[in-house]
Automatic annotation (TrEMBL):
<dbReference type="InterPro" id="IPR036388">
    <property type="entry name" value="WH-like_DNA-bd_sf"/>
</dbReference>
<dbReference type="Pfam" id="PF12802">
    <property type="entry name" value="MarR_2"/>
</dbReference>
<dbReference type="GO" id="GO:0006950">
    <property type="term" value="P:response to stress"/>
</dbReference>
<dbReference type="InterPro" id="IPR000835">
    <property type="entry name" value="HTH_MarR-typ"/>
</dbReference>
<protein>
    <submittedName>
        <fullName>Unannotated protein</fullName>
    </submittedName>
</protein>
<dbReference type="InterPro" id="IPR039422">
    <property type="entry name" value="MarR/SlyA-like"/>
</dbReference>
<dbReference type="GO" id="GO:0003700">
    <property type="term" value="F:DNA-binding transcription factor activity"/>
</dbReference>
<dbReference type="InterPro" id="IPR036390">
    <property type="entry name" value="WH_DNA-bd_sf"/>
</dbReference>
<feature type="domain" description="HTH marR-type">
    <location>
        <begin position="17"/>
        <end position="152"/>
    </location>
</feature>
<dbReference type="InterPro" id="IPR011991">
    <property type="entry name" value="ArsR-like_HTH"/>
</dbReference>
């Protein structure tokens, strides 16, 4: 497994590392819970919102399932489960890929488009209030660099595991 070192003895976190790690874990979980809760009035979860947001930015509001799984960093089975829930709600549908019958597209429906258009102003206000407005411009730039680096490494490891 990629996360384990070859040495059996763990390299324990020092106090500075532990503080950074715990601060991140606590803040990220609370933030995601709050953002999820703020979408309750729209009958969307953060997972639903993320899928709809990716599809809303895609040409013709459609994307290959494999590409969507990669961008969302979801396993194919998790995305498949999420799609079933979202199909039942009428927000998305799947279409067979004409070039590759094994592949399929996730397609946002008009109902899905209306759902994200309605939820987006509240979601953005929540993100701004709970996160962005608590950071300086320098903080935002530093966090973007840090998490781009972490995401790249995780995406590489995630793709290796698929």
């Amino acid at each position: 497994m990629a996360a384990q070192s070859s040495d059996k003895t763990p390299k324990w976190l020092n106090p500075r590392e532990m503080k950074a790690w715990r601060s991140y874990i606590i803040a990220s979980r609370r933030l995601l819970e709050a953002l999820d809760s703020d979408l309750d009035g729209h009958d969307l979860s953060m997972a639903d919102y993320e899928v709809l947001a990716q599809l809303s930015d895609a040409p013709d509001r459609r994307m290959r399932m494999s590409e969507l799984a990669e961008i969302a960093m979801l396993s194919k089975s998790r995305l498949s489960h999420r799609m079933k829930v979202m199909e039942k709600a009428g927000w998305v549908r799947r279409e067979v890929c004409p070039e590759d019958k094994r592949g399929s597209f996730a397609v946002m429906t008009e109902k899905g488009w209306r759902a994200i258009v309605k939820a987006a102003p509240d979601h953005v206000a929540s993100v701004r209030n709970r996160f962005v407005d608590n950071l300086t411009v320098k903080d935002q730039e530093e966090l973007a660099k840090i998490f781009d680096r972490v995401t790249t490494k995780l995406r590489d490891e995630f793709l290796d595991d698929l």
